[in-house]
Amino acid sequence: MEIGRSVYGSVGSSIVKEARAGENSRTMPNKDVVIVILAAGKGTRLKSSLAKVLHPAGGRSLVEQAVRACAPLKAKEIVAVVGHQAEQVAAAVAPHEVLTVLQHPQNGTGHAMLVAKRALGNAKIAIVLPGDAPLIRTETLKALLATHRLGNAAATILSVVLADPSGYGRIIRKGETQVGAIKEDSQLTPEQRELNEINTSIYCFTLAKLWPALAKVKPNNKHREIYLTDAIAVLASAGETVLAQIAPDAREGLGCNTRADLAEVDRIFRERKREELMAAGVTIQLPETVLIDPDVRAGEDCTLEPGVQLLGSTRLGTRCQVGTGSVLHSAILGDDVTVRAHSLIEESRLENGTIVGPFARLRTGTHLKARARISHSMETKKAIIGEGAKVPHLSYIGDAKLGSKTNIGAGTITCNYDGVHKHETTIGNKVFIGSNSVLVAPVRIGDGAYVAAGSAITENVPADCLGIARGRQSNKKGWAAKKRRELASHQAHAKSARNKPRKAKRRRR
Ligand code: UD1
Ligand code: MG
């Protein structure tokens, strides 16, 4: 991806560059439309060192969610107005086809639009979205644009009706279809406070009408900001058509101003994702306890038990069972894979019919070939476990390669680290490693070899050999019986000493 020209705001610096990726912009059905995402604000009410639009909800940053909702509209350009933590916000949208414009300082939503003016070129219509309303759907944006075009409007506002509208700007209607103004929460009269149709901050503007109206807006509020919402009254009083379209799902307008808003929006995204997987044939037990990231895929007849998390780019084949409390991060599972309770699997591949857990930790680079089994209280890292191989309990297998049908006894560890470097252990096919063995890498165990339990293996074991590396056992005849007799006589002596009557102590005067 090439970082190209910068587009500056009125008081810009050169830190924010255009971020481009992909070639979608060449085939655009909405060539007269630009999309503007307002993402420069700090988000004071979140009380965070991270810019608001970078906070995640539903597994992606708020700003990325907004960009993804807009992308299918194939507008002429998607422009993000950035300011607070501009470079990080630009980086968050960089993988998408987004032009970033710097707003510094951030003097309000109307000011943000003015800063973006040059970047919007000769587009006729702008769809404007805040960076903090990530639940908006593409279909709703399409419908808003259609209403705007059909009504030949100067502005069309997406509104929603809320039982508790506090905090939001209210739609002040004049007549059935037309809007007279948007009034911010802080500016409402007691009667207007009763109005429950709110401004989502998502609009269509005919740009030729917006610019002169915005030029008339004054920073008449306690923050001394230029509000985009004030342009509505200017347009309406000039006799322009201003419409408001109520979104079909009120949740699409939810703005994330507080941590509680973020939690609610995240909950809704997660619910949508679970519904998508259930519709695709996945059983989810106690669904509200299961967390699934947006890019996760799962095949038919998979079962997710309560408290499961499927994160990152995790993929499940068909008929997989993921046990309660298990967390899979970017794991690739084939068909008929069983992950038993409380296992943690990161960036690993589990082929068909493999079984993992309970309480297993598979770290990055673990690859279980078909029907391999990693069971109780295990840790693996960069380990290839051969077809049908078994590592049943209490082992650490790191930087290792195991052949097919090999069996690793309980308590075996690969000693892969000498304090400076990592070394590899290679174990062949049909090898049997006795319990509690230490395999000090680099070391190779040949096909069909045995390692005696309790061995500390520091040298290669050739194929079909027995490797044994432990102290030789000797049995001492009669030793235990003699020991017991000695102990019994000590006990009898101590008892009789305790039972002897004590002489009365003389008192000293
Ligand atoms: C805004 C609307 C309000 C609406 C609500 C819906 C205004 C004045 N008010 O209020 O009518 O009901 O959204 O959620 O527009 N931003 C900039 N530059 C700035 C200021 C803000 O880019 O100078 C961005 C923010 O990053 C944010 C968006 O604009 O993504 C909205 O700003 P925010 O402060 O959240 O406005 P609200 O108080 O929620
Ligand atoms: Mg907001």
Task: Tell me about this structure.
This protein is of the alpha/beta class. Helices cover 19% and strands 28% of the residues. The protein has eight helices and 39 strands. Strands 13, 16, 19, 20, 22, 23, 25, 26, 28, 30, 33 and 36 form a twelve-stranded parallel beta sheet that branches. Strand 8 (170-173) and strand 9 (179-183) form a beta hairpin. Helix 5 packs across helix 6. The longest helix is centred in the middle third of the chain and has 21 residues, at 259-279. The radius of gyration is 34 Å and the shape is elongated. The termini are far apart. Mean pLDDT is 93; it is low at 1-27. The site of uridine-diphosphate-N-acetylglucosamine has 31 residues, from strand 1, helix 3 and strand 10.
Q: How many strand segments?
A: 39
Quote the beta fraction: 25-35%
- Mean pLDDT across all amino acids: 93
Gap from first CA to last CA = 101 Å
Stretches where pLDDT falls below 50 for ≥5 residues? Answer: 1-27
Helix content: 10-25%
Rg is 34 Å
Which shape, going by the Cα principal axes?
elongated
Largest sheet: 12 strands, parallel
Q: Give the ligands present.
A: uridine-diphosphate-N-acetylglucosamine, magnesium ion
Tell me the structural class.
alpha/beta
Number of helices: 8
